[in-house]
Every structure is written in structure tokens, then in C-alpha cells.
Amino acid sequence: MSRQIRKRAAPEPTTGCGPLIPPLAETSRSLRQQVFERVRAAGLTARVQVARDLGVSPASVTTIVSELIEAGLVEEVATRRGGESGRGRPVVALGVRGAAHRVVGLKISDRDLSAVVMDFAGRLLAEHHEERRPVALAPASLLAVLETLLDRVTAKAGLARQELAAVGIGLPGYVDSTGGRVLWSSILAERDVPLGRLATERLGLPVQVDNDANLCAMAELWFGAGRRLSDFVVVTIEHGLGMGMVTNHRIFRGARGIGMELGHTKVQLDGALCRCGQRGCLEAYVADYALAREATTALNWTHRESQSMAILLESLHDHAKAGNQAARSIFRRAGRYLAVGLANIVNLVDPPLIILAGARLRFDYLYAEDTLAEMNALVLATGRPLPEIEIHAWGEMLWAHGAAALALSALGERLVAPVRDVAAQ
Ligand SMILES: [Zn+2]
């Protein structure tokens, strides 16, 4: 029998029953983290409100807030008590001290580079976008691209690199975020690249790396519709097809770190060839390179790597709108495959909301009534309402916002969760 399959006749004898959960300190958020996260999420709030929200004594919140203020992470802001006149006596509210730190979010995709600088409170200080040629890079070349991008957006914010505290980087492909390794990406000419470590060395800053679809979910979770939702799914349609999943207000990347690869779930045995090297992946039917491949065949167009994919797709869309049957059938087929993917998500995960995100969502075929009807027909008939579907055509900067949120999240963890806090609870 192979190592992968292990056969057990009966449970191993053990004492006790129920899940063997590690000690509390390893699994739960410390009170210090919870206080900081409440203040960050609220924008401005009062100590008494934080205590109420967390169900702890005001005294314990006051102690922790004093520490956070002393550490320069939280500040007191004079504000006017609300009320009809808005002229009540001044009160002191708590907020994250934006000036404490700055982070950068970088996103590299096949054809775009985007970047943002944010302060510690998540306020946007600068953004930058440029196009790139779609070529797979050697790791050294990618590092040079990232460094240039970082320097450009940092200069726009009027900052020096030494004034930054953390960097988040997003790129398409299989990314082990915990270990900072890129196992495969269309951006990289090599497999299994320790990009997190290499970029940390090159930039001289702590770097977090993640899959671009997770960044999209992160952007929704930190700045978008997902802020108020504990569970939702984001499906991204760009050069590839990605998925990000949020459960209990946190990104779920799969138990071993690189799950949620919706684009590479198989929808056809021995089907169309995918960029990953396998056949029949959903992405190979829905992503823009799939549409371009069909357009070049059905409409007898030529498409060179140097040609803008956006222009080709716009042209295909125009033809479909003008009634060209071949162009219409290309979109219709992509929409049907997308419906299969969405229905599979619903049947597996049962989310309350699916957000479709990406610049391609201008192409309304993707969420046409036909597509939704097809999805509904493939979802298990339970008699309950279907999940809501929202379209977010945020544009290219969405991803970089998610990358900055990744950096802010990691920075917050590092600064706010010292081990000594465990004893203070
Ligand atoms: Zn694939």
C-alpha cells in the first residue's frame, strides 16, 4: 500500500475523548490583540465601548490601552460627543496611531504592476500603477521589478524606504503564504521560489507573500463589503481565475496553505490545456487567455504576446454586442463554465455571499441572467434561498490594497502580541 493511503481497522486506544486542542495560548487571540483589533476596526472608539464589546472589565481594557499608547501604537483623539447639536463637550476617543508605521502593498500580475502605501491606521498615502510585458521572470529579475515598484510608490508618498515597516506582495499562482514560498506562478520562470525570504533580504524589510485571490479577499475583508461579514467567498476573474475564502473573519487558505484553487478544479476530463500544465481546469475555459485562444480560432484573429489582452477582449466584447454569433458563443460558453464553478462552491462551502471581482467584470456575460440561471440549476435544490452574488469591478488597485492589508495584519500581529501578554490575561 502506498504511503499516501493508510488503513486503520479501529481507533487507537486512548484516554479521554473529544478533540485534543492545544493549550489556550497557542490558539486564541490575546486580550491585547483583541483590544487593538477593536480599536483599529472602529476607527475611533471609547475604552468603555471596547470593554463592552469584548465582555471584559473596563479596568483591564484601560491597562492594555495604556500599554498600547506607551508603545506608540494607539493614540487619544479629542472628539465631540455626538448628539443632535454636535456641540457636546469634547470627549477623548481611541484610534490607531497612523503615523506609527507605514506599509507598502505590491501586486504583480501578468500585465500589471500596482502598489499602495498606507499608514498604520490603513489610510492611503500613495498609489502607483504601470503595465508590464507578460513574461515569466527569473527570481532575480522579479526582485528587481519589485524593488523598483516599491521605490516608485514610496517616492510618491514622499517617504524613504527606511520609513517603512512592512511589505505585502501578491502574485498569481500557488503560494505558501506561511512559508513565503511561491510553488508555481505564471510570473516566475522557476518553481518553488522562497520569495518571502529573498524579498526580505533584497528590500531590507519584513515581507509577506500571498496568492493574489487571497489579497482580493483580504481587501474586501479590510476595506470592502466583507468587513461586516464573518463568512464569504471572493472569485476573481483576470488573466487567471482565483478564489479567496473568509471563514470566521479570517482568510482560509486550506489547512496546508495553498487550497482554494478554484481555477484548477477540473471541469472536463482530458479537456483544454491549462497554464498549470494539466488539462480540463476551470481556468482554461473562463480566464481571459481562454477567451483569447477561442477568439483567435473562431474569428481567425491573430494574437501575439505583445498585443494587449485588454484590447483583444474589448474587441471580442464589441463583436458579441454587435451580434457576432461566434463572439457570443465564446462568452456564453465561458459563462456556463463559470456557472459550474460557482455552483460547485455553493455545494461545497454554502457561503452567504459570493463576490465576483476583477476588471473583466465589465463583460456582463459573466453575470448575465443565463449564467446565474445555469448556476441555480446546478446548486442542490434545498428550498432555501441561494447565496447572494455581488459584482465588484474595483479596478486594478484592489489587489494592492489587499497586499497592504496583508502587511498591516502581519505587522499588527508582530507588534501587538508579545509573549508576555499571555500572563496578563
Ligand atoms: Zn490548471
From TrEMBL:
Q: What is this protein called?
A: ROK family protein
Organism, as annotated: Cereibacter sphaeroides (strain ATCC 17025 / ATH 2.4.3) (Rhodobacter sphaeroides)
InterPro entries the UniProt entry points to? ATPase_NBD (IPR043129), ROK (IPR000600), WH-like_DNA-bd_sf (IPR036388), WH_DNA-bd_sf (IPR036390)
Q: Which superkingdom does the taxonomy of this entry point to? A: Bacteria
Which family does the record claim for this protein? Belongs to the ROK (NagC/XylR) family.
Q: Which Pfam families match?
A: ROK
Region Disordered, as annotated, extends over 1-22
